[in-house]
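Incident log, support desk, overnight shift.

02:14 A customer reports that sequence design results differ from what the structure should imply. Their input is reproduced verbatim below. On-call engineer (initials T.W.) acknowledged and began investigating.
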């Protein structure tokens, strides 16, 4: 099973060239049952990576282009009156899929963005007083442009906190962009030859949960979180953030073929989980505050 996961990772590296770290972190996010936010300039491969992740995991998915006129009901669905049966019938929205690709999520209004809050946290939506469960597993992979771009709105802090990871791809190096230009006439998604089934994804998630974390590791994680709460210039990390860091560290250890979490696992995932929580208006390409916390917090393991 783990060998097949590594094959999927290799295929993703053939689609998104020169970004092995971002791809591994994206896989960690999915295995840790989190949600992924990809922030970067237009044309950097955010949507391609989102499509590639969805295709690689063999899950049902829907893509929604977020625009200023998108309504909450366009995501969650609506009850429509059937004149023949004289009753209302529910028409499910795209959120009722295992992977929701929310493209350019910060171009929608805050009201529409907030429609995802219940779905992302509780894996359910409430419509007209009735609660409906979402499929399992359920992942949101969202892309957004930097806030200085025209037509964008900042995500609410409560929604940012529900994204386990925020990643930036950045510009490719010379060799990767050279290879990309040579492949211009072929779709990179055609390179995806390995796919995991729904049952395999669930089994991998169970195996991630079984990865052990010793008490000294948990104390180190809590020390990082406590340091953020002692600084008045930062948004303090919440218990939700603590749980996200631990789950992601377990996933990172699992992908690296270990059954236990190390301090390095926590240090590797921490900046990409913490930065957008410490400063919601920060740029995904900067990891200054999270790196400061790592430097200020001694690791005694």
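02:41 Re-run completed on a clean worker. Output:
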């Amino acid at each position: 099973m783990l060998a097949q996961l590594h094959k999927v990772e290799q295929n993703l590296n053939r689609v998104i060239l020169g970004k092995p770290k971002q791809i591994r972190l994206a896989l960690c996010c999915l295995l840790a049952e989190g949600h992924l936010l990809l922030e970067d300039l237009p044309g950097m491969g955010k949507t391609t990576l989102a499509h590639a992740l969805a295709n690689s995991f063999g899950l049902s998915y829907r893509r929604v282009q977020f625009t200023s006129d998108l309504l909450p009901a366009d995501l969650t669905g609506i009850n429509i009156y059937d004149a023949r049966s004289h009753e209302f019938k529910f028409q499910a929205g795209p959120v009722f899929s295992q992977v929701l690709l929310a493209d350019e999520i910060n171009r929608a209004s805050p009201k529409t963005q907030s429609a995802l809050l219940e779905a992302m946290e509780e894996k359910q939506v409430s419509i007209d007083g009735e609660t409906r469960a979402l499929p399992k597993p359920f992942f949101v992979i969202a892309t957004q442009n930097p806030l200085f771009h025209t037509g964008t709105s900042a995500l609410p802090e409560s929604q940012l906190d529900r994204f386990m990871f925020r990643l930036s791809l950045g510009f490719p190096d010379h060799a990767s962009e050279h290879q990309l230009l040579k492949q211009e006439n072929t779709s990179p998604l055609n390179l995806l030859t390995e796919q995991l089934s729904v049952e395999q994804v669930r089994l991998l998630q169970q195996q991630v949960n079984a990865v052990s974390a010793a008490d000294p590791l948990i104390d180190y994680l809590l020390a990082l979180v406590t340091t953020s709460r002692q600084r008045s210039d930062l948004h303090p990390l919440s218990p939700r953030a603590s749980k996200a860091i631990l789950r992601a560290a377990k996933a990172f250890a699992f992908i690296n073929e270990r059954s236990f979490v190390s301090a390095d696992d926590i240090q590797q995932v921490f900046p990409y989980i913490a930065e957008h929580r410490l400063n919601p208006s920060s740029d995904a390409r900067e990891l200054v505050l999270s790196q400061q916390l790592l430097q200020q917090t001694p690791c005694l393991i």
